[in-house]
Amino acid sequence: MATRKTIITRIILFTGTAISLYFVPWPIVMAWLPPLPDTVQEQIDKGPDMGFDGIIVYVDQGGKAPAFYGAGWKNRAKKIPADPRALFKIGSVDKLYKAVSIVKLANRKKLSLDGKLADYFPELEGKIENANEITLRMMIQHRSGIPNFTATPDFWSYPPDSSEEALALIYGMPADFSPGEGYAYCNTNYLLLTMLMEKVTGDDFFQFINEEILDPLNLTHTYPSIHAVNEEDLMSGYYVGVEEDIKTTDYGAMIATTEDVGTFIRALNDGSVFEGAEQEMYASLYDFGHGGLIPGYMTYAFYHEDIDAVVVQVVNTTNFSGYEWNLHQVMYNRIVNILRKNN
To answer: Domain 37-342 belongs to what topology?
Structure first.
């Protein structure tokens, strides 16, 4: 009887283990397992094996000249190798530029961080729940409770033609939570902040970013959208299961090179992008690095204080239902660890 119980127990354990192993994200595990190579380029060369059509990386480490790396394709169909100086869609990394801009406007008393959404857009009362309670500060920090317009059905397949059309997608929807009582990453917050920048300055949002951030930092390869660049300079973008290049689809994303983004990230972290009280104001509000994910492009852009290094990584292959974002993170973390090992 004891032997029979032992056999049954072993069968149960084996079955449970087998089932557990079935659900293990093996592509991520296998990407983590190998020993770190000696160089960043050796690691990046593994990108195509991880399913990336192309990957480019910029490293600015204190005391060293900036380094540029690439593997795979800039354009798969034309067999053009990945170019680390190519333009790409920065996705949500643009939230850093917009958060800095809002702080600059607040410092100049053009707006108040504690001002209510309805104070600036009274027409939104009745369209966006709690518009008279939501502050700009909450919106910057994703604590507003406003629904996310990019999470509405078919948004990515049929992107709206204007900010107004995009905003209208969430009119009348219930709030995700009461203002200030929760957190939910939400692109609608920054759509509204962008619209506010234009209302307050009386100009296009990018004009302010250009004059107050890009020009002082001598960043000449950052643009408001795909309509401001030569298409041939833009790294191709791909989505798993879609054969064609999707880089010409316009989601309103800013465009830049890894070097321009990296220079901005360092200025954000060392404070040189700020004036007067702006740095202290910003430190209480938002992040000093960011990721970006839109169809065709994944970005990671962060400063690592322990090695005094800015690392910007771009992959031009996406799949919202696959492991691509996780593999992107694994690649990035391994690169940073290589830099730490060699520091």
So the answer is: Beta-lactamase (3.40.710)
Q: How far is CA 314 from CA 39, 59, 172, 220, 262, in A?
A: 18, 12, 36, 19, 12
Would you say 300 and 311 are in contact if contact means Cβ atoms under 8 Å apart? yes
CA gap 142, 331 in Å, rounded: 27
CA-closest candidate to residue 165, choices 99, 294, 251, 227: 251
Model confidence pTM above 0.90: yes
Q: Are 239 and 223 in contact (CB under 8 A)?
A: no
Q: Which residue type, as a one-letter code, is found at position 330?
A: V
Q: Over the stretch 145-196, which tens digit does the pLDDT of each residue have?
A: 999 999 999 999 899 999 999 999 999 999 999 999 999 999 999 999 999 9
Residue 125's φ and ψ, nearest 5 degrees, are -65, 130
CA 263, 269, 272, 278 torsion-angle sign: positive
Ordered by start, the domain boundaries in the chain are 1-33, 37-342
